[in-house]
Amino acid sequence: xxxxxxxxxxxxxxxxxxxxxxxxxxxxxxxxxxxxxxxxxxxxxxxxxxxxxxxxxxxxxxxxxxxxxxxxxxxxxxxxxxxxxxxxxxxxxxxxxxxxxxxxxxxxxxxxxxxxxxxxxxxxxxxxxxxxxxxxxxxxxxxxxxxxxxxxxxxxxxxxxxxxxxxxxxxxxxxxxxxxxxxxxxxxxxxxxxxxxxxxxxxxxxxxxxxxxxxxxxxxxxxxxxxxxxxxxxxxxxxxxxxxxxxxxxxxxxxxxxxxxxxxxxxxxxxxxxxxxxxxxxxxxxxxxxxxxxxxxxxxxxxxxxxxxxxxxxxxxxxxxxxxxxxxxxxxxxxxxxxxxxxxxxxxxxxxxxxxxxxxxxxxxxxxxxxxxxxxxxxxxxxxxxxxxxxxxxxxxxxxxxxxxxxxxxxxxxxxxxxxxxxxxxxxxxxxxxxxxxxxxxxxxxxxxxxxxxxxxxxxxxxxxxxxxxxxxxxxxxxxxxxxxxxxxxxxxxxxxxxxxxxxxxxxxxxxxxxxxxxxxxxxxxxxxxxxxxxxxxxxxxxxxxxxxxxxxxxxxxxxxxxxxxxxxxxxxxxxxxxxxxxxxxxxxxxxxxxxxxxxxxxxxxxxxxxxxxxxxxxxxxxxxxxxxxxxxxxxxxxxxxxxxxxxxxxxxxxxxxxxxxxxxxxxxxxxxxxxxxxxxxxxxxxxxxxxxxxxxxxxxxxxxxxxxxxxxxxxxxxxxxxxxxxxxxxxxxxxxxxxxx
Amino acid sequence: xxxxxxxxxxxxxxxxxxxxxxxxxxxxxxxxxxxxxxxxxxxxxxxxxxxxxxxxxxxxxxxxxxxxxxxxxxxxxxxxxxxxxxxxxxxxxxxxxxxxxxxxxxxxxxxxxxxxxxxxxxxxxxxxxxxxxxxxxxxxxxxxxxxxxxxxxxxxxxxxxxxxxxxxxxxxxxxxxxxxxxxxxxxxxxxxxxxxxxxxxxxxxxxxxxxxxxxxxxxxxxxxxxxxxxxxxxxxxxxxxxxxxxxxxxxxxxxxxxxxxxxxxxxxxxxxxxxxxxxxxxxxxxxxxxxxxxxxxxxxxxxxxxxxxxxxxxxxxxxxxxxxxxxxxxxxxxxxxxxxxxxxxxxxxxxxxxxxxxxxxxxxxxxxxxxxxxxxxxxxxxxxxxxxxxxxxxxxxxxxxxxxxxxxxxxxxxxxxxxxxxxxxxxxxxxxxxxxxxxxxxxxxxxxxxxxxxxxxxxxxxxxxxxxxxxxxxxxxxxxxxxxxxxxxxxxxxxxxxxxxxxxxxxxxxxxxxxxxxxxxxxxxxxxxxxxxxxxxxxxxxxxxxxxxxxxxxxxxxxxxxxxxxxxxxxxxxxxxxxxxxxxxxxxxxxxxxxxxxxxxxxxxxxxxxxxxxxxxxxxxxxxxxxxxxxxxxxxxxxxxxxxxxxxxxxxxxxxxxxxxxxxxxxxxxxxxxxxxxxxxxxxxxxxxxxxxxxxxxxxxxxxxxxxxxxxxxxxxxxxxxxxxxxxxxxxxxxxxxxxxx
Lengths: 742, 742
What we know:
The structure is a homodimer.
Chain A: H1 14-23, H2 27-53, H3 57-68, H4 71-74, H5 80-100, H6 106-118, E1 125-126, E2 138-139, H7 141-168, H8 180-203, H9 215-225, H10 232-254, H11 265-280, H12 282-286, H13 313-337, H14 344-359, H15 370-378, H16 384-401, H17 410-419, H18 422-426, H19 430-437, H20 439-455, H21 457-477, E3 481-487, E4 493-495, E5 502-503, E6 508-513, H22 522-533, H23 537-557, E7 560-563, E8 566-569, E9 599-600, E10 620-624, H24 633-648, E11 652-656, H25 660-668, E12 680-681, H26 684-701, H27 704-707, E13 709-710, H28 723-730, H29 735-739
Parallel strand pairs in A: 6-10, 10-11, 11-12
Antiparallel strand pairs in A: 1-2, 3-4, 3-5, 3-6, 7-8, 9-13
């Protein structure tokens, strides 16, 4: 037995062809029979299963209830002795971290931008009763904040509704479209937005609240225009905070294996800054911007103003998807660690219900923070009980400690936020690697980033999403394709461009097209074929028709004589069937040649008329369809047309390596109405062997002299003469569009 | 030599494996070398070509000019004697047809809807000076029509600009996205819109000019509400016209081979109706709605009001694409017939410039009518001279004949339009066929139709376009996949589901995934793998870790003893390593087993602890990637993770039939940093043979007794012990998203 690499081609004896057909059946038919049997079998199994399942339907109903309300599942099983203590410890720790660490979630920023756009400062100017402040306008802080809370809670309600709908529609998979490059670009843009919004606070420079397209740029410009008004006390406090925070964070990071807990520098800085501001009375002495008033107590439940929904729809959509995607990405980490699986749609429903509920209690959109989750897990949290306890701790902290923070400079808080942005901005360094690995991914990154800066985060994310989808379509539309040849004398076919020692079988072209064939890329597919075979089948056919007409004319005029073994020119060089370069035709020339005289011409030899008929050096075209993963109606029609166009000029088209479902589609769309199934082969090599065998057996039958011959006694019209009919059929392509042109 | 169908597998001798590797090289490296050489060669060729081309650059400049302004090409070559006469005949015929036949272009309708929305009747009410008409409001017809003409010409200008931009950006290919199902649905919706708009005229019932979403439905409702106000004279005239026109058209169609020219029934009906209306003075006697006033003369050029652009952007985009697509689809018919090729982008530029120019002369958006084109061609038109002549004829007709049509009832004109809609509505019959052939295409049809009715034609077309693109993405995202086995003892691998007599090689699973692997479908890909192999690799690994820990504990406690040839339970059935059903873990249990005692367990035999470790019945997984047409960064990373996950549980992953550019992408994205290239094979069969050979040679070395053994003197840490490191690496997946969760 020889190695497969050195398999030589089998001798072309007729038995071979026969045994080949038997051992490799035309597989679609076989597949169909087998599928039918299999389906029957499946139905039988299903029926048996159904019979069994009826008995346990009650059990299942309880299961469904537990799935919808997981608390019914875990609370009755709660092991108080084992779990309660660790839940309490974990809850308290998480609560403290939540209070101390000022985290920066993207969702806050997105909600913030909506709130600012719907309730800008300008809406809350009040007339100052005393005329002292000439330029400074007074803002009704209380009314403004109340309006903003209302907007935020309306947003929460809408986000909840969207999430619930998504969950019920089972479209949790859309999160997959938030690909890493898109998220990278989006996050960097978010960091930039945060930077600008905090910069204004650090400098204590007031600007208008710009919104919509390019608002971030306008804000930046205005900040620099008013940079002269910078409050030095705020600026210095902010700058110091940034430097200290970043330095300590760097140390935390570098020595993370040596120190037990990272230094909570944000908390330390905040406490010190509050003390300084209070001691030095920075507000009075330096006009510094301080926190000033933290409202306490809780708002009663209220129905948010639903009429705002239409204004915040795009933003809500973005927020709903982003909040959910963050939560699921964190959840997956623990799902892997503790070996359970996450049901994306269940999560969507859970977040949806939770947000709808909190929408009535002036709450913020819910999502997940990795750091807090990590604390809860590492301190031994077992169940949601820990979550309830940590929420309680945060609540106490807000109520009790809020008052103490009132003298704190706002610029210090802003600086803490900025100090945390470093990681986000460092993502820019990913771009060169991405560009090297996959240019399209890099483009998605940059596009999403720029769009999120220009259009705002919500519209930016949406446009990034759509752009990402378009790149998928484009990648499918402009696929790679190769002309193939066989490696030495093996059955392996590889690109003639990328490999040396490739031989194309004589008189054949093999094309591999690496993409589905559908309405978007049929033109590309046709171009690939044209470029592979080296000529345009329609053009060749038209030129041949033209030449035929001229030959007929010349024969009628007596300038040419037709013999059994060819056409002989009488007039020599003086024949006037000269084709002008600027080729505008007589309408009567376009008539199909009459059937009075029918001629068979060997188109690859010299023709007695000077029509420039392109040579067709091949007799077969093999399409390797292994990578054609689906077809649509337009794709099937194109394949039919292509087969016909090539048949008209005596080139046979064969298909190799089609997948079963693709063949099924061809069957459904009527491909086999005008094509036989024996043009399909299991592999390219099978097709090539078949063609080579065909050619050899033909050569024995035909003599070359006979091919250039005039068959005046030919009774059946030649295939070439059916042009009118075929033309009409070939034109079905843009039928729908032409119908618009009445 | 035997037929390839019956090739038996080669005997697994060691030489075979060697020769195999040599004869089928790891092809990416070979490909790269060859590509480099080829590129050098190409550069050389390019340089030579450049050197040659300098000499003919002047000739080329002229060529470019002629491409931009084709008239420079054909006018100097105009053969007056031969062509002028037929051009004149053709021009006159086309002009007459254009005048007589009231054609119905979709573009008119689209323009009309924009005009109506921006200049509704309501804007032009005037106070009636006499109090006679109590309910009827007067409309300033002249002002309204002037405003509407201005809007139409502004639209023409904007459409021209869009087309020019599209042409310059070379994105003529977007027309391909107007697939036939989409156009079918769109046209039917357009017909419906026309029907409703004309119905109102036939009944002579006035309604408000609704616009935007659902306007067509509102209009329809109002028509039926006011149906009592129907003007009987108009209704009867309209109904008669419809019946007559449709009947005669049916006859025309049925006897088209017997009659020389179709009966121009529209012209005949129009003339008769005008005469009757004039003779019977229908306006006065029956209050019929007549044409009344046709303005004559030409408007001077003027700059259209550019400030309207923003309001008509979406509509202009749709109109620009539709007008262009119609023209190109007609053009293609003649391109095929006369053997020239159409440059889509050139057409875009031509239409763009033409529309921009006409925008200043109160003109309508230009497109192509198939019927007029057919007349021009069949009557012998040779050049654009015929076009100029036919335009002249139409102009004369408008100026001269307009006045004569003023007594005509509007309902007759409306009826003529409706009689021409039949073909459009008949397209509904395509749906069942489409559904049978390709469900997605049918859904696109219906979706586009409904959207175009609900949202209006412009937004409907856009949403249909986007929907079509989404279906492409979904088709790529949810691809077909199959577990494979070989047909009897051949090298052909087919789906185990669809075929009988398929045998899966022992201890192996083969998966064929028919789609690119990219961010949108990596989850689907993983599910396919899980479903093919029948277990979850991560879960298996975690359960094994857990069992290992329990075995270690038991060994420490002395309840288990480890021997060279296995682990022996001392305590028998009383061992307490029982795994509870409700399985919540102690945090300390999750520690990685210490390296003090290292154990090698045969996971497929009985384990002495009661941990439910899923059995892994395979040693190899082969991924058939023939249909993976591209990968992105996320896809490559998933492949890396999958290989690692399976390696941890001693399953080797092999790749077969990858395309060259896919291997290149793997190389670029660092796949080979942690994977050797010898897991890649040219075909599935090669991979299977390789694995089978490996297994056989291993079986000779290993004795089964040795596999269940404790290797206390083992020095190197086992692969299983590297879990911590691997876990971190495996978690890189949603990194970008988790970064948002700070």
